[in-house]
User: Fold these one by one.
Assistant:
Number 1:
Amino acid sequence: MGIEQLVFDVEKVRQEFPILNTKVRGNKRLVYFDNAATTQRPRRVIETVKEFYERYNSNVHRGAHWLSDLATKMYEDARKTVKEFLNARSEREIVFVRGTTEGINLIATSFSRGLLKEGDEIIVTEMEHHSNIVPWQLVAQQTGAKLKVIPINDRGELVLEKLKDLITERTKLISVVHVSNSLGTINPVKEIIELAHQAGIPVVVDGAQAVAHIPVDVQALDCDFYVFSGHKIYGPTGIGVVYGKEKWLDKMPPYQGGGDMIKEVTFEKTTYNELPYKFEAGTPNIAGAIGLAEALKWFKQFDINAVHEHENELVKYATELLKQIGGIRIIGEANNKTAVVSFIADGVHPHDIGTGLDMEGVAIRTGHHCTQPVMCHFGIMATARASFAIYNTKEEVEIFVSALKKVLKFFRQ
Ligand code: PMP
């Protein structure tokens, strides 16, 4: 790969995001470092959604008229774009959902109906987002299955050696986050999948924080399921994707019942539609799916390795500058991490840091980031988290750090 392909013009990219010009808190320049919560949308995505409602809006798969045919084609083309983005084998493996949370609930609920029984075991990790813990707890309660946990070390990396001990003949599924939203750790999911497959165990990967930062190829990973949200990759909210291998989706019963997911309904017996429609009950988020496809096409124009490199530089730079300030502890120092810097500061509560930075125009997130077991591991209640995206710059990191110094000085004096 030539070096030309590895560089992109951040200033040009920024111009595509109208919201980045917003002035906040009394005409201050907005520094948006809350990208792990949600990214901003480029103009192309905003325009695509608007155009859909202005010109093409209609329901899908009910093709009695011109507009409906068109909307259906756009919706199914969006599925094709997602298929290509993930390098899935077929569109039958791509199910549109509301987001990662709904995606994991779909898999957990459907998998539990028929494929889980009392005494079975599901393995997750200590660094999961609550949306990859609670759905499994719910199905465990209903089926009598048990949840087991791969621990993390103090750098915020998985202690992978423990996985071999955790796997038994009762293990039915492993669900693991690709990139941690509170630590930034990139997990060795390929290795986990290889290990799991040796024992015939399927693996779910929560890709919410991965797709916008590192290359994802579901065939290369050989994962059984991959889930992500549109809004974390420059697309709309309310749309997300479950990728599932056909061999599993075929075996799994529907998640929800309703329109579109059936072939034939009588009071005696209902037969289900083919994949992926079996899992898409009711009117889907049509504009969301089309907006997501536009976001993926937009994002694909950049070399993902260049994006990753750019964001890594921001992580390194921010980490270095933060460490120069006294009394700061970085939470999550994995060798392999991306896009996230979580930290705590002696004597100042993360919420005060968040509020103080906000007064300076810097948007970060504070709290447990829906990963309370991670907070518990580090013996803390919360962190302050700066999370980066393609449009962030080193200059913004400097603004953030000097604002932070001001805030710390205020609270520490
Ligand atoms: N998993 C991870 C790792 C996340 O970061 C998030 C969002 N913070 C989710 C799952 C849930 O995603 P959503 O809220 O879009 O359903």
Number 2:
Amino acid sequence: MSKPYNILFASSEVEPFAKTGGLADVCSTLPKAIKELGHEIRIMMPRYRFISERKFRLHDIIRLKEIPIPVNTAEKTANVKSSFITNLKDKIQVYFLDNESYFGREGLYQNPKAKEDYKDNDERFIFFCRGVLETLKRLGWQPDIIHCNDWQTGLIPAYLKTLYKDDPFFKDVKTVFTIHNMAYQGAFPAESFHKSGLPQETFTPDGVEAYGKFNFLKTALYYSDVITTVSEKYAEEICASEELGSGLSGLLAHRKKDLYGILNGIDYTVWDPASDQHIYRKYDSKSLEAKADNKRALVAKFNLAYNESTPVIGAISRLVDQKGFELVLDMLDEMMKLDVQLVLLGSGDKNLEKKFETAQKKFGDRMGVVFGLDEELAHLIEAGSDMFLMPSKYEPCGLNQMYSMRYGTVPIVRATGGLDDTVEDISTNGKGTGFKFVKYDSKELLKAVQRAVKTFQQQPEDWKKLMRNGMMKDFSWEHSAKKYVNLYKELLRH
Ligand code: ADP
């Protein structure tokens, strides 16, 4: 093994403490995999109020109390609490930066009821970014790498290259920044900039500014030593397409030699039908008949009738524009003419929720919807469905299609980003794992569903092969974790 590195992972979401999407899964499982490769890795995240002190045995760290953090013209204080996550052999230390006025709230970024972003998200994450560096100094634990994730951590590389550049503690520290989604940028009005304490001259297009705003993601893309994103295809797409690059494709193309696509893995200790505690009956590729019992349990949960030959199409998703559910609504009438059942677990956009609620009333005996976040139900949907729908407009990596394949649930996906990198269409010479469509168009989605239903109902042997091919795929983290470590190695060599 190469020399062990000290790596600090900074993220605003980490499973099982706080999650709105795949970011949380990655920021829990990737550190575990890196630790398993023999490196020392620790995590820092905000301490949101809902992270239960009791459940997670959070405790104070006496010497990390009342750390002064300059934000705007005031001095705020961070109190650091500690807990850990575990993998098979090790514990991974997690530090929580606590400040009641910033993080003592019910949501991560939004008021959960009104679904409106908190007005002071700029200050909250200025506090977090600066807090990470100040905490490290007090802790006296010197990382070789600070691995930042998404806009909420985007100022860290800029602080290191400006305010902290002559600080001997950070002299040799390198930064890696991972883009989990280009569309969320943390772009604030120019007036926010002075709250950061960054030098005035950095507020230019060759610095933290993008289109007149103080943009946290852009800041990271400009200042971090290396940029990664979560699939190779998405890495190409965000450089090549102004739309997918969300206005920053020029800068990304400029930094292309420092940009790497590394596919996310999945956590097989959590997502494996052979050991899944949440599902009705465990199974693997040799006991596929047990999957039918999960299908029974699933349809019963949604008050639908069980029919072996009627495929259940599952979907679990944030209901936001990115995920392509407008296409589903567009073709729903046509799709429901087929002999199928649809179950959807989602939360997000109120308008989309309303439209699906109306559709559910129309197709009630063959369609079930649950709005909200429900981890346990998500597992049952993966286990009990025959097919899984992900018609995303864009998808940096996507996790559910990989979970689906592991569960023998055949994905129907749009060929974009990580969906394109992980799913092979049935037409690919016996190696297929699912059904893909290319154009973002409801008719194309409908055709893909029709192909899937036809194969399911008329070619059972081909269907079984699709299921088995998917179940045999290896999407474990080990492979990707090695790629990250190689990247660290390259970076530290220079
Ligand atoms: P994104 O991060 O864009 O939301 P990913 O596919 O990368 O998409 O990750 C989504 C993660 O969130 C998966 O683990 C998925 O199971 C989970 N998830 C999404 N919506 C829900 C929900 N309503 N209930 C439970 N889990 C959900």
Number 3:
Amino acid sequence: MKNYNIAVIGGDGTGPEVVREAIKVLDAAAKKFELKLNYVEYDFGGERYLRTGEVLPDSAIDELRKFPAILLGAIGHPDVKPGILEKGILLRMRFELEQYINLRPVKLYDERFCPLKDKKPEDIDFVVVRENNEGLYTGAGGFVFKGTANEIAVQESINTRRGIDRCLKYSFEYAMRRHSKTPWNRLKPEDIVAGKRAQLTLSGKTNVLTYAFDLWYRAFNEMGASYPEVKLEYAHIDATTMWFVKNPEWFDVIVTDNMFGDIVTDLGAMIQGGMGIAAGGNINPNGTSMFEPIGGSAPKYTGKNVINPLAAICAGAMMLDFLGEANAAEAIENAVIKIVRGKLKSLAAGKMGYSTTEVGDLVAASV
Ligand code: IPM
Ligand code: MN
């Protein structure tokens, strides 16, 4: 029996509620596929910070490093100044565990829940690869003359050749994997499914950010030469948001920097049916990866048993896929599709027609 140790951080707000349902569903899949999942819970988050004054204990990162995966609920507390928990917990884990990929699938499961007119599940099925360790998120910059009328705030976007190349490499291989019969690390040209062309779109702003995206663009085209099976495309980020609404079927895999990826994936979440269903993985292909629903801690729904747990459940499925359990991951996704199409009235909190725990029960039973 395969055995996996999973760190669980429920975190703030509705985080613990949705993580509980994800674990319920993971356990159902584990039983079916004969896996053993051992969970170790950590209480990091706003409550702990308010109680102890400590955001993350010094030992935390090294302790988390021992796990192949982390399941995270949400970080963000209404009584804590914005930035403290986000930077001190979420971004610190992403950075120190070198989770340099933020993988965000945008997949419509049921056209009833799409805000776009006449778009069907086959039209909205793409993946955004967001660079997750650099760009505007590193904290580089500072103030000059703070608090005076001459105040200057500088926030610098860091783009390293190494950081870009490793992100692009993951993106090209991911694009190949999406159109192949075998897992990507054993991919041979004959494994590519005939007739389905992998496409990788670099989304940037080469017309204005003429340093950062010049480097991205050159690196993208240079690496692309080694992946003749992948069709290369480029779109400016502003145009990309337009295409998300107008022609989402045009996309396959999109790669972009940290800030643009943050923004564009909220739009992606909306066209796939909302935050209730949007999941993501913070991936270190050679280390500890972290999976989370991409929505926030939703304080106003906390403790009411109304929040949609499907995003957390889908994050659990992505985690199993990362661990190499593709069949178990697929079983969860199929169960989610079945419940979304067959049962739910809405994907929004309080409007699903079922409570948080009931949705978890339904998916677990379907697995
Ligand atoms: C996300 C979130 C985070 C981000 C915040 C909470 C720091 O918006 O995961 O998209 O900006 O990356
Ligand atoms: Mn975001």
